[in-house]
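Sanity check

After download, print the first record. It should look like this:
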Amino acid sequence: MSNMPVAPPPPNRYQPVPRAVLRSPVGLAKAVSILLAVVVVTDMFAVWADYQSLDMVNRLISDFDSVTGQEIDSVDMRYRLAGIVQSAALIATGVVFLVWFHRARVNAEVFAPEYHAKKRGWTIWGWICPVVNLWFPRRIALDTWNASADENQRGAKLLNWWWALWLMTEFIGWAAGRQYARATTPEEIQRALGSVLVTDALDIVAAILAILFVRRLTQMQHEKALRGPSAPPFVPNLPAL
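Expected structure tokens:
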């Protein structure tokens, strides 16, 4: 019995997370910033189209005969075109932003590997999964920010303002879309278009804050990488348990 071969241990069923490797986020940040600027332009076009549509509806309510069928078709075409270019810009920006976001998160592991509350995969799934997408991305962004920050960069007001406006835009946009889909009378369409206009205007501000956030976090990581591993990460004071 003592000469029986010993069975080898079972193979590890779970693959370890790949080691974090520092990679420059500068090029991706530039691409994201350019695409976010395109989003701002498309939102400005959408605001103009919203205003034109709202003005036409106001005229229909006050004096129906003052609006021609050709004008209605023209305004409706601009409104639909604005929605198409907005959607295209948002999809392209979202894809590149997620690539940048993931890279920034991995870089933050190099600076402070012990600090992150969420795994890397949530940099993607956190935006997609319902309900958790209301706070997971911000949690990851905040951990990444703090891991990349120094003592003089403790505040994350820029991140908080961007996230608050992004959530506000999403909620108002969702409500405005449902309001517009259910609208049947000119008065209901008028109110729905007003909500859509507010959404597009807020999205301009949110996109500008997103540009500032991307540029600031990228700059923090770039400067920290240039200084080398001697710079410790900023870990905020946590309340005692």
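If your output differs, re-run the checksum step. Summary of this record's structure: The helical segments are 26-62, 69-111, 122-128, 136-148, 157-182, 186-227.
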